[in-house]
Amino acid sequence: MDKFEEERLKVPFGSKHLDAALCVPASGEDVHTAVILTHGAGGDMNFTHLVSLAKALVSEGFICLRFTCRALNLGYRVKAYWAVWDYLKSLQKFTIKHIYFGGRSMGCRAAAALARRLSDESEDAVQGVVCLSFPLHPPGQTHAHQQRSEDLRTLPEHMRVLFVSGTDDNMCDRVLFNGMLKEMKAQVEVFWLQGGSHGLTVKGRAEDSVLDEVNLKVIAWIREQET
Question: What range(s) does the KANL3/Tex30 alpha/beta hydrolase-like domain occupy (predicted)?
Fold first, then answer.
């Protein structure tokens, strides 16, 4: 892995601050693409999958800013994500031209919601959204899928979305998910992790092997959008 630098930050958020970590390639002056990542309910920015993806992204020449917001209220999470997006844009030492939003579970719900709001103002605010284990519904409560997928279904045609989900995810009924995809206007790609749970773990496979597979897919997808 190429050399990189990680800086721990306090991102202003109203009268509070959000814990964050900025990963930058050693040759950060020439970097023009950044990815923001956040965690799901009950986690933080040090969740293994986020740290692994952040390191993989920076090793491929991208900036990655991940942050912690433990609130379980989606509206609050979206406001926190917005504050981090504003902070990233304010960094004077980089010339960031492309920004991708990402997160796992509840974190990608917040990412999609903010992407939809920002796209109402500008096509260039965010280039795409990475949804790791999108929680289409709580376990056994499939009736919630319409409400949870509203922001995704209303994303504009120019938006690009990558879904990474496990085939055994108990929060993503495949039939309902495929129905949602048909209603989406955005440009969508889906990567199914065979045997993957909502936590993107696979029985019988080492965690590092699964993480490498997911990370390679995310990086390849971002590179496709950049060409």
Answer: 33-219
What's this model's pTM, rounded to 2 decimal places? 0.96
The arrangement of strands across the sheet holding 98-104 comes to 4-13, 16-25, 63-67, 33-38, 98-104, 128-132, 160-166, 187-193
pLDDT of residue 38: 98
The answer to whether the CB of 171 falls within 8 A of the CB of 135 is yes
What pLDDT, on a 0 to 100 scale, did the predictor assign at position 26? 82
Domains recognised in the chain with CATH numbers: 4-226 (3.40.50.1820)
